Amino acid sequence: MKKRDFLKGSLLTMGALLLPRKIWAMDFYPTTSKAEWAVLYGTWCGSSRDAAAWISEGMNGIAKVFDVRENPDLSGYKYVIVGGSIRAGKTTPELQRYLTEHNEQLKGKIKGLFAVCGNMKQPVTQVQYQQLIDNHLSKLTGVSNVASKVFLGRITWGLMDPDARKQLQAFNMDEYDNLKRSECMAFGKEVLRSVAP
């Protein structure tokens, strides 16, 4: 190896190591402009991640999508949509904690709520809206009377923690996927319409 090539490579490597950690994070959720909207989600196995990305897609990519485990700073966003995957009638502990800790900051910004649940592969009814939106997410956020949606979810054994997989398999549950991109995109459009002047 030539001395000049070695020095170039070394300088590039050192420069890359000095970059802030945030630059290394890959942005999986493209946006079309400086976003005023954020979609915040909590997930166990990725269903709500996909729902959140598709909701943003339905809004023509104007919403930035955040996993609650990133502990995002949403103070710079004008509007927020909040949702997550459901287990035993509740969203993830991380989402519950985040919403409790940031309640005052978010309260006036939340314009949509969503939940993703398997619902034993049964159609969503008003009962799920009452349990998951009215009695859970609305209480966590202190927000009601905003656009809301309960999506059917999916089970992918390879993405599930062993304890949850064992519990569900005990019910003779199979893998399935009832989360629909078109429904998530339609909800994104509904939320946008709900705040249109």
Description:
The protein is of the alpha/beta class and 197 residues long. It has one domain: Flavodoxin domain (Rossmann fold). The chain has 8 helices and 7 strands. The protein has a 5-stranded parallel β-sheet, with helices on both faces. The protein has a two-stranded antiparallel sheet with strand order 6-7. Strand 4, helix 6 and strand 5 form a beta-alpha-beta unit. The chain is globular, with a radius of gyration of 20 Å. About 7% of the residues have low confidence.
| Whole-number tally of structural domains | 1
Mean pLDDT: 84
Low-confidence stretches: 16-28
Main sheet overview: 5 strands, parallel
Q: Element order, helices and strands?
A: HHEHEEHHEHEEHEH
Class of secondary structure makeup: alpha/beta
What name does CATH use for the topology?
A: Rossmann fold
Helix content: 40-55%
What overall geometry do the principal axes of the alpha carbons give?
globular
Keywords for this entry:
197 residues, Flavodoxin_dom, five-stranded parallel beta sheet, Protoporphyrinogen IX oxidase, Rossmann fold, alpha/beta, signal, 43% helix, globular, 8 helices
Secondary-structure topology with pairs:
Blueprint: H1 3-17, H2 21-24, E1 37-42, H3 47-58, E2 63-67, E3 79-85, H4 93-101, H5 103-106, E4 110-117, H6 126-141, E5 147-152, E6 154-155, H7 162-170, E7 176-177, H8 181-195
Parallel strand pairs: 1-2, 1-3, 3-4, 4-5
Antiparallel strand pairs: 6-7
Helix pairs in contact: 3-8
Domain Flavodoxin-like: 37-192
Organism: Paludibacter jiangxiensis
GO molecular function, one term: FMN binding
